[in-house]
Write a structure and sequence with these properties.
The complex is a heterodimer of chains A (about 550) and B (about 400).
Chain A: E1 2-3, E2 6-7, E3 13-22, H1 26-37, E4 42-45, E5 57-61, E6 64-67, H2 78-83, E7 93-94, E8 100-102, E9 110-112, H3 116-124, H4 128-152, H5 164-170, H6 174-180, H7 182-191, H8 196-201, H9 207-214, H10 230-240, E10 251-252, H11 256-269, E11 273-275, E12 280-286, E13 289-295, E14 300-308, H12 312-319, H13 327-335, E15 342-349, H14 362-365, E16 369-372, H15 376-383, E17 396-400, H16 402-405, E18 415-422, H17 433-451, E19 459-465, H18 467-474, E20 510-512, H19 526-537
Parallel strand pairs in A: 3-4, 3-14, 4-11, 8-16, 14-20
Antiparallel strand pairs in A: 1-2, 5-6, 7-10, 8-9, 12-13, 13-14, 15-18, 15-19, 16-17, 17-18
Chain B: H1 7-13, E1 18-22, E2 25-30, H2 36-44, E3 47-50, E4 55-60, H3 64-71, E5 83-90, E6 96-106, E7 109-114, H4 119-125, E8 132-135, E9 140-146, H5 150-157, E10 170-175, E11 178-183, E12 192-198, H6 202-213, E13 219-220, H7 223-232, H8 276-285, E14 290-296, H9 298-307, E15 323-327, E16 330-341, E17 346-353, E18 363-370, E19 373-382
Classes of the chains: A alpha/beta (about 550), B alpha+beta (about 400).
Amino acid sequence: MEINGDKLVDQKIKAKKDVVIIGGGVNGLVAAAYLAKAGRKVILLEKKGRLGGIAVTEEFFPGYKFSSLADGAGYLSPTVASDLKLSQHGLEIVPVDPIVYSLQPDGRNLMISGDVSATSKEISKFSEADAKAYPRFLDLLGKLSTLAESMLYLTPPDLPEFGFKDGIDLLPLLKPVWKVGRKDIMQVVRILPMPVSDILNEWFESDEVKGAISASALINNSFGPQEAGSGYNFLYNWAGSNNGHFRSSGNVLGGMGALSNALANAAKSLGVEIKLNTFVEKIVFDNYVASGVETNNGDHYSAKTIVSSANMNTTFINLLDPYYLDQMFIKHLKNIKYRGTTARIHFVLRELPSFRGVNGNAHKLLSGHIQISPTMTYLQKAYDPIKYGRYSANPYLDIFIPTISDPSMSSDESHLMSVTVKFMPYHLREGDWKSLRDDLAKLVINKIGEYAPGFEKLIKHQKVITPLDLEQDYDLPEGNYVHGEMSLAQFMWMRPIPGHAQYRSPVKNLYLCGAATHPGGGITGINGKNAAREILKD
Amino acid sequence: MKETPFHPRTSELLDSYDWNEWSGWLAANSYELDHSHEYLAIRTSCGVFDTSPLYKYIIHGPDALKLMNRVVTQDVSKYGVGKSMYTPWCDDNGKIIDDGIVARVDEQFFRMTAAEPTLFWLEDNATNLNVTIEDITEAYGIMAMQGPYSRDILNRLTKTDAQGLNYFGLMDIKIAGIPITLSRTGYTGDLGYELWVKADKAVALWDAVFEAGEDYRIRPFGDYALDIARIEAGLLLIDADFHSSKKVMYEHEKTTPLELGLGWTVKLKKDYFVGQKALIEDKKNGLKWKTIGLEIDLKSLEAIYAKYNMPLYLPYQSWTEAVPVYSHGKQIGKATSGTWSPMLKKYIAIARIKPKYASIGNQVEMEVTINAERHNARAKVVKTPFFNPSRKTN
């Protein structure tokens, strides 16, 4: 086709925009919204028929809606929520209390709530000393976590090429550092590389108390409480928590998908164009400069800025041609540790299970995170088998019953229960997750049955999501929720890989905004916010 | 220490007991107590060198060409089946990692030699490529026949005429019924061939070659003779004239193929190779170093020795410890290997110096140490190869 003698080079150019965002997960949506807010013309392309990435509500059985992968949105950045006016766009998070309800085999369950003195009293069932230590523990660690919180919003310095610009980026740390004080800064430096068990052992004597508190440090990771890095995650979760405690709480009305909808609404209201069912097949680049994307039906979207919220493998091995990337970059890419160890099981239950020790008041006690993490020793033993490629026969279970705070998830009287199961390694020495699906369900049902006799009889439906399903159905490499383990070797300036922690990629005009970037996972939206800030600088 | 497939023969012949270690294998320094006969065999008859310790790889599959082209600086697509090439390969910053020979055995089948272990490097570069990489180092022996009569000896051994095999060509032949891949390659700068043989047939091949070469006084040679020959030929040696960028600690120890005078092997215009971007940049900005030949002025050297009432001393064995090179007393680079050349009757060295001093004929000085006292001998910049007989390529 020729127009006035000029060849129309590509008939399929769909759009010319300032920004193309690949992937409509939480961080993709957040980045899109911030960039649109700054006046950029943004188009967001999502391959699936729905938005949200891991923040998604799915109707696994007609009439029953589940938050497929994650519960609550307690780690969502309040700054992001208010900047994007998410409550105006339909986000409703209902607070839930207790924060943690830690089940004990004998029914002597431990409730940790927002009420510190009530919690101390609960703790005194296990140890008087621990009950006394608890408020002081909250006080100091809470203070340290505010410093950690300010780190979440930083662009990590470019080490070892640290320059003036990196110094400027670190300025926001000054105030919190000043506030925390020199002595306590030393505590942060000391705590970060510690195992959470060492931290808690310095404060508490009761294994039960420590089991209840340490569990949250393990949720997104492949290590037990005695492993280095678990302390960092403990503090990280504390920093992002919405209630000032070590573990966040809250339930999104309508499930996690409602968060994505609110983000999408916010983005659209700022002018972002969102296209679903649009599978980006490649990022067009030449000589280390990206200029657009191509979809699998041949559509071309050109843009000055390309932002990928996808995981690193998808971005750099599937969408870009790694043939043209630096060897060292590929090496770092391959060195990213994923090692997912999480499975999810959802149940539709005829009624609330009768957990031992819950006598009346079940709606209150079971409204938050119910943990089967009776002791810290139990957690460590739950972790141990994965070192040898085996899954845990006595797993740590993190249970949430959304229908208590949000009955709309179920179309009838049935209750829904979602269980995060640790430790279920993606890499198994023997067997595979395709054939172990039923074993996994049985194991979890039996384990819950130990604490709630007759549980199995309550089950109407069950949906098992294995680590393999997480990879295949939700694009999570090796079933890792957070696009790369939150280990000490993969945080701050080493996340996603050393030398590229500033949301920029080695390909000019291509930026990263997904969970692979600093600060990591947890459905905070901070990655998207930080990425947008860097993009707007260039 | 590992023994090469030729060990039953080389060990028998090693009168000197002078072994060295080469990549974990036993390798001969010189078979006799003095290496001069071995050197002369290379230049006047035919010498045989056991090259087996080189790392050897085969790379095959639909994306084999693509992988080779990503890894090495040469444009491999320009070489058809039955051709081989000398090529370096670099890291992302264009710094040389290693060099070797890549041979195109078939459209999608390559063979590669390397001085250093290279399997992981190849695998790391093969991301998303449909290619199989195999380390065949221990499965094969390589015998190098080097010297003006190497072709005549080969012609006695094989009905398939090696006469027609061009420089850097490759062909499959049989010698005494043993399948051999023959390539017209070597590390001496002379007429010569390399014979790849399955390890279990190596001794039989050795015997056949030595029987056919008896009339020519064929003899094995070791590292000492080889090193003199390769310096004469202006061929670079890893760990002497350059260091692998993967093995050194500091930036200043690294160098690029452009600085090493290997620009002819670096195809900056091809689609992509590791280090391309950096080398384009380097070339644009001007090179920091140039690799050249030096011819040391013997009168000047003799005068220095005379101060000590000593006769002129010449390095009858090559050296590979770098020494400073000066211009008017100011250091401008270093000589990285040197030797007395018995053929040329000259003291020659390979040196890396600042480009502005590198024009042919330029007078410089090279450091000479006598009794731990330093002196500068006059030297002039000359072209390499120092020795380049027409039979090498004809």
